[in-house]
Amino acid sequence: MAATATAIGLGPIRAILANRREGLNVPMSQPRKDRLWLNDGSCARLRPEYRTHVWSYDVVPCRTDDGKALRTLNILDEFNRECLAVKIERTLTATSVINALSALFLLRGASAYIRSDNGAKFGAQAMRDWIAAIGAKTAHAEPGSPSENGYCESFNARVRDELRNGEIFCSLRETKILIERWRRHYSTKRPHSALAYRPPAPKASSQWTQGRAGPNT
């Protein structure tokens, strides 16, 4: 169990054990506050109501074992927390983001909103023009408020704790293979606490990676 579920927390482990009926008693974790909202309720933010309603994306820096930098572009559907894609390159630009989102839109249709940080590549005029051209709307996080892109921030933490901290990436190709394998596991098998310990998309992920569009559910 420890070898396959490193750092995923007591909740997912409890769900896995329950599914396997191993009869072990795992201590209940303490409830935690929702960090996406300010305590006074002043952080009114767009909340996803259905699949493809709000997608969010973020770029995270990483390195291969030789010290060379690379970037991962993580794209999520906020409604069911599914990781739609992870694009990994040495450098990423606004054009890289547009190309990755375009490929997903061809498979799934355009999302109503696209949320991102206010970084330079995210706020580029080409990016804003493209989003407007496809009929979507932007939902930028305020500068200095990473919690407003909290779905991506949470996902980034999962990647760090469950994969990056335990792996040595020897090359760009190896990094792509390992992270894509983990992404599929995350979306199709890993229990998620916000989804009553069900995986985000147990069936859909394999359909999209094979290039077939399935029904919205």
Query: Strand fraction band?
Result: 15-25%
Q: Which blocks of ≥5 consecutive residues have pLDDT under 50? A: 29-43, 205-217
Largest sheet: 5 strands, mixed
Average pLDDT rating: 77
Radius of gyration: 18 Å
Oligomer: single chain
Distance between the termini: 31 Å
Element-level helix/strand string: HEEEHEHEHHH
The percent of residues in helical segments reads 25-40%
Specify the structural class. alpha/beta
Shape, please? globular
Number of strands: 5
Number of helical segments? 6
What's the arrangement of strands in the largest beta sheet?
Answer: 3-2-1-4-5
List keywords for this structure.
single chain; 217 residues; alpha/beta; five-stranded mixed β-sheet; 5 strands; 33% helix; globular
Summarize the structure.
The protein is an alpha/beta fold and 217 residues long.
What report would you give on this structure?
With 217 residues, the protein is of the alpha/beta class. The protein is built from six helices and five strands. It has helices at residues 10-20, 94-108, 125-133, 150-162, 172-188, 204-209, and strands spanning 54-63, 69-77, 82-89, 113-116, 137-140. The chain has a five-stranded mixed sheet with strand order 3-2-1-4-5, with helices on both faces. The two termini are 31 Å apart. Residues 29-43 and 205-217 have low confidence and may be disordered.
In terms of topology, how is this protein built?
Layout: H1 10-20, E1 54-63, E2 69-77, E3 82-89, H2 94-108, E4 113-116, H3 125-133, E5 137-140, H4 150-162, H5 172-188, H6 204-209
Parallel strand pairs: 1-4, 4-5
Antiparallel strand pairs: 1-2, 2-3
